[in-house]
Amino acid sequence: MEIFNAMRTQQPPSSTQGVGNTHQSVSQTHKTSMQTTKEQVNETEQKADTEKLKKQLQEITDKLNKEMNPLKTSIRFGFDDSVEELYISVIDTSSNQEIRKIPSEEAMRLAAKMRELVGMIFDKKG
Length: 126
Fold this sequence. Notes:
Elements: H1 2-10, H2 15-68, E1 75-80, E2 85-92, E3 97-102, H3 105-121
Antiparallel strand pairs: 1-2, 2-3
């Protein structure tokens, strides 16, 4: 009896275990590729949403400026793509010169640089 027990413990693993491991690795590879595909789809959707939002903001600023024209005000609205923010300009109507911009040009440049630095520090690809 002991001989039979010793033979059982020394038998090589059955071929079905190898198939099971192969199935698991294929399944894992499939899951990984599905996750990558989902991430790409989400990124594409976010870009499309961002572009749609930018277009809507530009339309809103145009509408606001058209509404302000009949009032002969010295306020104009704008949208800066580099910072992705709205701004307000106070204009001297007699000379058509910009008196003040809110937020200031310096603040907008600073915000753009900050976004660039954050992008470099927290790079999604790295």
